[in-house]
Amino acid sequence: MENIIEIQNIYKKYKNSEDFSVNDISLNIDKNEIYGILGPNGAGKTTLISMLSGLIKPTSGSFTINGLSPKKDNSKIKQIIGVVPQEYALYPTLTAKENLLFFGSLYGLKHKNLHKKIDEALELMGLTKFANKKIDQFSGGMKRRCNLIAGTLHNPKVLFLDEPTVGVDVQSKKAIIDYLLDLNKKGTCIIYTSHHLSEAEEFCTKIAIIDHGKIHATGTPQELVDRVANAENLEDVFISLTGKELRDVV
Amino acid sequence: MLYKLWRSFIKEIQLLKRDSGGIVIIFLMPLLLIITITLIQDSTFKNLEGSKIPIIFIDNDKSEVSKVITQELKDSKTFELVTDYNEKSAQEAVFGGDYQMAIVIPENLTKDLNSNIDSKVQTVVSSFGLDTDSVSKKITAVKTKDIHLYFDPATNMGFKNSVMNAINKMVFEIENKKIYKAFQDQLGTTENLEENKNLISFKEIIPKNGKLDVIPNSVQHNVPAWALFAIFFIVVPLSINLVKEKSQGTSVRIRISPTPYFIHILGKTFTYLIICVIQFLLMVAVGIWLFPMMDLPQFDVSGKMFHLLIVTLFAGLAAIGFGILIGTMSNTQEQSAPFGATSVVVLAAVGGIWVPVFLMPEFMQKIAAFSPMNWGLNAYYDIILRNSGIGNIAKELAFLFLFYIAMIAISLFYERKQNAV
Q1: What average pLDDT does range B377-402 have in this prediction?
Q2: How many structural domains does chain A have?
Q3: What is the mean pLDDT of residues A3-12?
Q4: Fewer C-beta within 10 Å: chain B N or C terminus?
Q5: What percentage of chain B has pLDDT greater than the value 90?
Q6: CB distance A177 to A161 below 8 Å
Q7: Which of B333, B373, B321 is nearest to B22 (CA)?
Q8: CB-CB neighbors (< 8 A) of A87 in chain B
Q9: Which helix (H) or strand (E) holds B161?
Q10: What is the pLDDT of residue B48?
C-alpha cells in the first residue's frame, strides 16, 4: 500500500459563509485506488476536490499529492494531476481536435506525440469520425467523453472527476467507465464524486461518505454495506448515514 | 513554453475566425466609421455642388452695399438666398426651424454709411488744416446701422460663429473701401489708395517632409484618429472572449494546468496585436485608395509607414491591456460589453479624438494627459503632421507600454486574489 494522497485536518470556510464547507477531513488514498466521494448536495464533495486540484485554497490543514506539497510544488502537482470538471469546459466553437490540441499542449504535450495521444483517446471514446466537428454540434454524451479526454491526455497520476457521467445515455456511460477503468489499470488513481450510488458501488474500490463537510464512513462498498444493519446496498447505507431530509442548496 | 504560446495563439485565431459578429465589430465597423466621419467633416469645409444651405436674405437697402453683400454671399457658393420674406415672416420661419438663418439689410444702409464716413473723413481732413471744395459743405454723421441676423436656436454654435465672422469681415472690407474712396474724394487725389488695401497679410508656413509640403486635411487627421479608436474598440471582443472562458469553464482548465497564466495572456496579446495592425492597414488602405475615389484627399504616408506601425503596435498593446483588465474583472458579457464600449468612447472623448485637447476646459486638458488614446493620437500626429521621428515620440511609446504592463499586472493580481477563495 502506497498513499498518493494524504490529507491532514483540512478545513474550508468560504467568505460570507458561517459554516465550514469542509470540516476537519483527514484521508489517505492509495495510488491504485478508484476512490468515490459520495454525499448529498452541499455536502462538501466539490469543495474538497477543488482544494486538492488547486482551484481553491484550504482555510487550514494540509495535504500532499505524490509526496508533493501545494505550497512548495504547486506546478509539479499540476503536472501530475488531471481534472474533469462537472461542466463541459470546452470551447464550443472549436472542433474536438482543436480543443484537445490546446488543452493537451498546456501539459507540455507537443507535435506528433500530442496528435498520437489525441487520436488514440478519440478512438477509445468512439469520437474519431467527429474529431473535426465543432463541440456545439455534439450531443451531451459526446461532450462528456471529449471533456474526459481533455483532462486525461497527459496520463495523470491522479485524476479528479466531478460527476463524470451526469446526463449521459447508457452507452456513453459505459464508454466513460471503461475508459476510466483502463486508465486505472495503467496506474492512474481516480478520485470520483457522483450521485449515482449503484454506479459507484460497481466502479469504486473504496468510498468515503461525506456530509456537512465531514466524513461519516470510509471503506470498500461491501464493507460499508456490511457495517450498517439491514442495508442491502450502498443506497441504504447512504440514507442511513445522511438521512432522508431534502438537501436543497442555493 | 514556446509551443504552449503557439497553441494558445492558434486557439485565439480559431476562436476569432468562427466569431463572425466579432469580426464585423473588429474590422467593418471602424471602416464604416472612418468613411462616414471623414465624408461629413470634409463636406463641412468644402462647398459641394448641390449642398447649398438655404438662408433668408432681405434687402431693404437695395443699393451699393447690399448689392456687394448679396454678390459676396452668392460667390461663397455656400448659401442659397431665399428672398420672398419680410422681416417678421423671416423671424417666424427661422425661429420655427424652417431656415438656419436670416440676414436683414436695413433701409438706407449705403446712404447712411456714406454719410458717416464722409463726415468722419471731413473731420480728419479739416483737423490737418486742409481745405477742399467738399469740406465747405458740412456733412452730419448719422447713427450706426444694424444688420439684423436671425439664427435657428438649434443651429450649431460653430456654424453660427463662422457665419457671423464672415459677415463681419465682409462689412469691414466694404467700410474700408468706402473710407479710402472718401479720402480720395476729399483730397481730390487721383492716386488709387485702394491698391495696397491689405497692408498686412498672413502666410501659413507648413511643415516640410524633405522638399514636399505636408498639408493637413481632414483625411490626415481622421485616419490616425479613427484607426486609434478602432484599435481601442478591440476592448469589447477581447473582454467578451475572457468572460466567455469563465462561463464555459475553460478558464478553470487553464488555471489548473501547469502552464502559467501569463502564457495565456501573451497568446491573446499576440493575436489581438495582429488584429490591431490589420485594422490600421485597412484604415490606411481606405485613406490611400478609397478616399480619392470619393472625392476626398488621399492619405499621405510616404516614408512614414514604419513609424506608424510602431505606434500602432504600442497603441495596440495599451488597448489589449485594457481589454484584458475589463475581461478579468467582469463576470458576465452584460458587464463587459457595455462597460468596454462606453469606456472606449469616454477615453476617445478625453483623448481628443472628437474635440482637440486644446479646446477643452483646463481641467479636462489635465485629464487628457493621462489618456492612452491621447498618447497614441499625439504620436500619430507627430509622425503624420509634424514629421517627427521615433525619438520624438519615445515618451508616448513608453507611456503606452507602461499602461499595458500596469493593466496586465492589475489583471494578474485581481485574478490571483479572486481565485484565493
Answers
A1: 88
A2: 1
A3: 90
A4: N
A5: 21
A6: no
A7: B333
A8: 248-249, 252
A9: helix B157-187
A10: 43
Answer yes or no: do A55 and B253 touch at CB < 8 A. Answer: no
**Confidence check: pLDDT of B196 > 60:** no
Contact B250 A108 (CB under 8 A): no
Is residue A249 domain-resident? no
> Cβ of A106 and B254 within 8 Å?
yes
Q: Which fold has domain B52-196?
A: D-Maltodextrin-Binding Protein; domain 2 (3.40.190)
- Which pLDDT belongs to residue A191? 92
The pLDDT mean for chain A works out to 87
> So what's the pLDDT on residue A41?
82
Measured between CB atoms, does A103 come within 8 Å of chain B? Answer: yes
A93 vs B19, B254, B419: nearest CB:
B19
Residue of B19, B253, B263, B416 to mutate for A, most A C-beta atoms under 10 A? B253
DSSP chain A: --EEEEEEEEEE--TT-SS-SEEEEEEEEETT-EEEEE-STTSSHHHHHHHHTTSS--SEEEEEETTB-HHHHHHHHHHHEEEE-SS--S-TTSBHHHHHHHHHHTTT--HHHHHHHHHHHHHHTT-GGGTTSBGGGS-HHHHHHHHHHHHHTT--SEEEEESTTTT--HHHHHHHHHHHHHHHHTT-EEEEEES-HHHHHHH-SEEEEEETTEEEEEE-HHHHHHHSTT--SHHHHHHHHH-S------
pLDDT of residue A246: 63
- Contact between residue A98 and residue B14 where contact means Cβ atoms under 8 Å apart: yes
Residue A218 located in a structural domain: yes
The strands making up A60-65's β-sheet, listed across from edge to edge, are A22-30, A3-12, A60-65
Task: Tell me the domain boundaries of chain B.
Answer: 2-44+217-419, 52-196
Tell me whether residue A247 is in a domain: no
Q: Which of these ranges, A179-193, B14-28, B122-136, B361-375, has the smallest mean pLDDT?
A: B122-136
Q: Is A233 left (phi over 0), alpha (psi -120 to 50) or beta?
A: beta
Residues 246 through 265 of chain B touching chain A, CB cutoff 8 Å: 248-250, 252-259
CATH number at residue A120: 3.40.50.300
Cross-chain Cβ contact A91/B11 below 8 Å = yes
pLDDT band at B47 (very low <50, low <70, confident <90, very high): very low
Q: Contact, A145 vs A104, CB < 8 A?
A: no
Are B257 and A101 a contacting pair at CB < 8 A? Answer: no
Which among B168, B65, B71 is positioned nearest to B107, based on CA atoms? B65
In tens, the pLDDT along A51-105 reads: 988 888 889 999 999 999 988 888 899 999 999 888 888 999 999 999 999 999 9
pTM: 0.76
Q: Count CB pairs under 8 A between chains A and B.
A: 83
For residue A87, give how far its alpha carbon lies from the nearest alpha carbon of chain B (Å): 7
Give me chain B's average pLDDT, please. Answer: 83
Is A135 contained in some domain? yes
Contact flag B420-A55 (C-beta cutoff 8 Å):
no
Length reported for chain A: 250
For A121-135, write each residue's pLDDT tens digit: 999 888 899 999 999
ipTM: 0.84
Residues B306-350: pLDDT tens digits? 999 999 999 999 999 999 999 999 988 888 888 988 998 888 888
Contact B238, B272 (CB under 8 A): yes
Closest CB from B7, B18, B421 relative to A102:
B7
Measured between beta carbons, the chain B residues lying within 8 angstroms of A89 are 248-250, 252-253
Domain range for A122: 3-242
pLDDT digits (tens, 9 = 90+) for B289-298: 988 888 788 8
Strands A60-65 and A189-194, by their bridges, are: unpaired
